[in-house]
Amino acid sequence: MKVFEQYESNVRSYCRNFPTVFNKAKNSIIYAGDREYIDFLAGAGALNYGHNNDYIKQQIIDYLNKDAIAHGLDFHTSAKEEFISKFQSSILNPKNLNYRLQFCGPTGTNAVEAALKLARKVKQKIGIFSFMGAFHGMTAGSLSITGNKELKAGINGLTNDVTFMPYPDGKMAKIDTLEYLELVLTDTHSGIEKPAAIIFETVQAEGGIIVAPIEWMQRLRDLCDRYNILLICDDIQVGCGRTGSFFSFERAKIVPDLVVLSKSISGYGLPMSLLLIKPELDIWKAGEHTGTFRGNQLAFVGATAALEYRENIELEKEVRLKEFFLKSFLNKKIQPIDEKIEIRGIGMIWGIDLSQFNDPNLAKNICDRCFDLGLIIERVGRNDTVIKILPPLNIEMSVLQKGCSIIQQALSDCLAKNTYRVSA
Q: To 10 degrees, what angle do helices 177-186 and 214-226 make?
């Protein structure tokens, strides 16, 4: 541990919450020496198919053993060709979606930056509407549309031409958030120009597991159509099957103009980001948005294998079954522990909101206790008061149940140490 503290930058974060040295991982388990930890973090959503998935790993090994192209800029390569063909035949065509694929830099924020730049180029406007509670990345453009003020503290120029609108969460129950947004657009004295685009998450993951209602998303799509505004869906964390269907917006039967994918699109935790663009919006000039690592060949191989793997095990059906278990467990075993606990989620992303306890350390103490008991889990939301459940989608049911039992024990242990009432 000393080498990290002595030589690694202070910017490191996850390792501070999970202070051990990990050396191995398989499926839904991470190992630190002989100690096993159930993984309810899943690479912050980058490991939907688990650690070292056998099917995906074998495809990557076979590719490497052929001395195939490892780095290819945006050359035409066999790995890219196979991914595009598979993505088209397995995802886009069956869903009647017509998108062009732009391969961006390695991480999600690169694709968000591309989406913002393209939207502004198409509409010849610079304004962007985002939402309170949003998280879209840590580079300048992405950070400018991220709601967390703490992340932006002391950095000048990030809020220029970005307007934050209320998101439909519990605190906004008395506000029709889209009616308010439309009022801003139509009021000649609002002081806010019509934007090039509105970017949104169907589930605000880092914002506290806030799930947008279907009707709200449908109205948002309609509003963008009526006012000639592009709609960008950031599906980085909750796409690739996290909410059940491959795209999280499918449940609302809407089609965004631009869709951002990353994290689990590569299937194996390899860096890859992707921007889906309606064909009529693809007005880029050659090389106008570029990057040395926009052609991660191993990620293409992993992504193709992941799409095959999804079909082989009927993953959507698996997610639905586990969603039923999680929803039932959390509402029957966790929420009754104390009336101040709030449960939210969809698919295989769920949150235990402890903000009503008015104890800034409670969620951290529970997550620390979970780690002591062999579970890796993180906190999100305002003041990090929401415990986020984000296991691999293919987690074994017995491991999922054990992880949830650890949460139950940790929550009861930590509440018992305080003066909070714990239900029998």
A: 10
Please give the Cα distance from 231 to 258 (Å, whole number): 7
The DSSP call for residue 337 is: G
> Which of the 8 DSSP states describes residue 70?
S
Which residue ranges of the chain lie beneath pLDDT 50?
421-424
CA distance 415 to 339: 12
Torsion of CA 180, 181, 186, 189, to 10 degrees: 80
Give 51's DSSP letter. B
Q: Which helix (H) or strand (E) holds 375?
A: strand 375-376
Domain range for residue 412? 2-53+314-416
Distance CA 62, CA 48 (A): 22
Three-state secondary structure call for residue 10: coil
Give the CATH number, domain containing residue 190: 3.40.640.10
In angstroms, rounded to a whole number, what is the distance separating the alpha carbons of residues 139 and 110?
8
Please give the tally of structural domains in the chain.
2
What is the pLDDT at residue 149?
Answer: 87
- pLDDT tens digits, one per residue of 36-50: 999 999 999 999 999
Do 102 and 175 contact (CB within 8 A), yes or no? Answer: no
Report CA-CA distances (Å) from 163 to 119, 123, 256: 15, 17, 20
CB 127 within 8 A of CB 165: no
- Are 208 and 380 contacting, i.e. CB atoms less than 8 angstroms apart? yes
Does residue 303 share a domain with residue 187?
Answer: yes
**Do both 355 and 307 map to the same domain?**
no
Rounded CA-CA distance 414/411 in Å is 5
Q: Please give the helix or strand (H or E) that residue 112 lies within, else none.
A: helix 108-123
Type of residue at 286: A
390-399 residue pLDDT tens: 999 999 999 9
Last residue of a domain, one of 273, 289, 312: 312
Q: How far is CA 169 from CA 177, 360, 392, in A?
A: 10, 20, 26
